[in-house]
Design goal:
This is N-acetyl-alpha-D-glucosaminyl L-malate synthase BshA. With about 375 residues, the chain is an alpha/beta fold. Helix content is about 40%, strand content about 15%.
Length: about 375
Amino acid sequence: MKIGLCFFPKVGGSGIAATQLAIELAKKGHEVIVFTYDTPFLLRQSRHENIQLMLIDLVSYPLFKDIGYPYTILSASKFVEVIRKEKLDVLNVHYAIPAGVSAYLAKEITGIPVGITAHGSDIHILGVDPAYNSVMSHVFEKTNGVSTVSEYMKKEIHKHFLKDNDKIHVIYNPIDTERFKKQEVKQCDFKKLFNNYFIHVSNFRKVKNAPFIVKAFSEVLNHNDDVGLIMVGEGPERKDCEIIAKSLGIEDHVLFQGVRYNLAPLYSCSSALISASENESFGLTLAEAMACETPVIASRVGGIPEVVEDGETGLLFEYGNKDQLVKHMLTLLEDKELAKKMGVKGRKRVLENFRCDKIADQYIQWYETLID
């Protein structure tokens, strides 16, 4: 099969998941053409021979200075050009806005079967905005099929966009269980500072609720001061987190690391991964940490309960309940045997449900239905 995949190249959930899918499809012998505007980081060092990279031209023009690039038209033009030249069998765009509209235009022009994969904020933040909703509803109705990353997201799409529930397929995000596995790190730099630490990985957008984690962690320190909090990533609320840590007098215990590409050693050394999000469609970092046999603590929102088995692979708390979060953090600090058992069960769950080759097979089956 010759498959077109379009996604954002940034270090975010949809981009990482789609890149991993491209790699796995290529391993299975399919020709994959990746449409994006920059090289995804997982493809920078090496690229499977079955993967072609087609960069979307970001054409600049003075008239567009105040509104940015007309990305929808630019990507649609690239789709049409490559579809005609390469004779693609199917086009799958990840993140519905704006690529869903671009794919719809390409379908109207070339007749190619199109599948839209919705990842989260493209639905429950952008998609429901009146500025986008009317057009996106039409695009979802007219596309050949829609996939998404959790049952929670399927309900959201059905509620806001698609009357035909059977048109929506749930395919979970793929996790590379060879890249994400427990590593016996002989000398973890952070262990020189503290015997235990928690880790938070995100883009520090408001929905991730990172400042809440810093505040909860300050209360953990009242019970155990031999613990650190590693904050990985960049984004709008990172500075707020730094200010809060300093105001609480815990800045020496909260370490900001910026963007890190090799996360498995950090997951493997940590007592737990913490997520306090207001909403999550899936929770990619949770599954990555579980694959490394690290227990997770997360808010009971969105698709997270589909990833994390409460009490088995991690501990869930009600969104915004700081007392519950603090209690869970202390539990995993104090009960090492429980933490270890949760870690083992977490990896088992990832292997059974989110392994790359299994997810790629589900996408292939979905593509076949789009073509038929």
